[in-house]
Structure formats: structure tokens, C-alpha cells
Amino acid sequence: MAWRNKTTVTEFVLLGLSPSWEMQLFLFTFFLLLYAVTLFSNIFIVLVISKNHHLFNSPMFFLLSHLAFLDICLASFATPRALLGFLTQCQTISFQSCMTQIFFLHFFGGTEMFLLIVMAYDRYMAICHPLHYASVMSRHHCMGFVLASWAGGLLHTSVQLGFTISAPFCGPNQVDNFFCDIPLIIKLACVDPYPLEVMMVTNSGILSLVCFVALLVSYGLILSTVHSRHHSEGSSKAFSTCTSHLMVLIMYFGPCIFIYVRPHTRFMFDKVISVFYTTVTPFLNPAIYALKNKEMTAAMGKLVARHSGQVSAQVRANPAGRLSWWRHTRRWCPRRTVLNSVSLLQMV
Predict the structure, then answer these.
(1) What is the pTM (predicted TM-score) of this model?
(2) pLDDT at 127
């Protein structure tokens, strides 16, 4: 490809999701709540797994902690910028920032795609080959799988960004979404977009489709093995785990395939799909993995109970500190507020 860099565009205009100010206020509230819950739930999962020795040494939960971290990253590459745009009506984004969004979107997204493959392989070995599971999914191998996932994501995004950033942009600069992505950017290039579209379909679309089909086949083998075990307790637990994983696969790969396999056509609900796989999926992943897993919910309850017990013990063991706190707050708070706070403190 012998494109000469004739880029004159220094910034892009993000048209967002709606031109209505009222709708933008609603979207700001919706995105803010969704983002806050996503950060809290995924950070909580990472803390629970890291604080629990049993979960941290389990390959499945070790990989789950990395998935939660990737969800934090995936939810953060564009959402804070979108929240600022909803309030300030600042719709412009520099060329460098736009390319940075593309880089991190496909870096974190590609890494999560490969990590989901590793998680499926983990469940396949645990259910179909339990005798070899401990040796194959050792901590050393798990670390290697995680590093390979990050390397695969880096390679995936580097190829796409290399093709995109070398294309000249000298004309229109309006991006019909709240973040920059390759299907929208390559249509603004001042060259024939066909080579870029082939690159995108091959690198993102076909790769997502092949991985999704391979994962469906692997989970089909797992469910077939589970079904042959009839109604044992272990089979029921394995079936529940596989069902949760399949829900994640459909939510993650479905929008990616829909967006990146068809470069020539674009529909109005593409924006809704882009919101789904960049903000909603990182929000739903903790609920699917944590709330449906008894070990995870038990570990969460123990961590909360232990933390609450430590706080209560510190308050009861330091009455002088409690009195000092009361004297300090009395100077700054109304009397009724202080009395209410003291009453709540005595109830602990």
C-alpha cells in the first residue's frame, strides 16, 4: 500500500447518540450510573478474588479476575469522554485522541476475545479431561495464556491502526457516534475505502466469526459431556457455568460480528449495538459470573462481613477516638446531624 500521508484533518466531530439536549441529559445519567456500577462491580470482583486464597489459586477465578480488569478498561476507553461531551456539548476530538480510542478499543476488545477462548478451554479441560486439568491449567500455564491473550490483542489492534493511520484524511470529519471506530473512520478517508474495508473484515469480522464458531463447537462438546453424566451435582454445576459463558459469548461476539462483517452497509441501530458491546457487556459480565456462582457470592459475603467486623471492632476498641470524632464534627455540623450520626455509631 503506497498511500502518501496527505492528512489535513486535525480533529473529528463526534455527532453522539442524539442531537436533543433532553436526551443527552438522560444519556448522561444513564451512562454515569452504568459506568459507576461497572467500575464498582468489576473492582469488587478483582478484590474478592485477590483476597481469597482459594479463589486466587483456582484457574477459573484467576482468569475471571483478568476478565473483570479488561471490562474496566473496555468501559473506560470512551465513556468518560462521552460523559464530558453530554454535559459540555464539546463534540470535537483531536486526530491523535481518535486514533488512541481506536487503539484501546481493539486492544482491550481483542484481548478479551482471546481471554474468553482461554476460559472456554479451561472449562473444556475441567469437564472433559479432569485427570489432566491440574497439569494443563497450572499457574505457570495460566500466566502464559493470559500473556498470550494480551499479545494477541496488541497484534490485532496494531495491524488495524497501522492501516488506518496511514490513510489520508483531507475532507469530511464527522463521526456518527460517541466514539471513534474503524468502520466510521475509514469512510472519511480520501481514498478508495475498499482495501481498508477488506482489512477490517479480515482482521475483525472474520476473526470474530471464526472464534465465535470455534467457541460454540467447544461448548457444544462440553454440554454433550455434561449431558452424558445425567443429573449429578457436578454436572449441574458445570452446565450452569457453561450457560453463563455462552451468554457472555453471544453478548460479546454478536455485536462485533454484526458491526465488522458488513462494511458497506450501516443501519440506524448500529449506535445501539455499539453502546451494548462497549458499555452494557462490561456491566453485565459481573452479574453473570458472580451472582450465578455460589463460591463467588460466598466469598463476597465473607469479605463484606470481615470488613464490617473490622470497622466495628476498631470503633468499639477506641472510645477516645469516637469522642474526638464527635467533638470535631460538632463544630462543623448541625446538632441534629451530629446526634443522628452518634446514634448510628452506637448501633454498630
Answers:
(1) 0.81
(2) 82
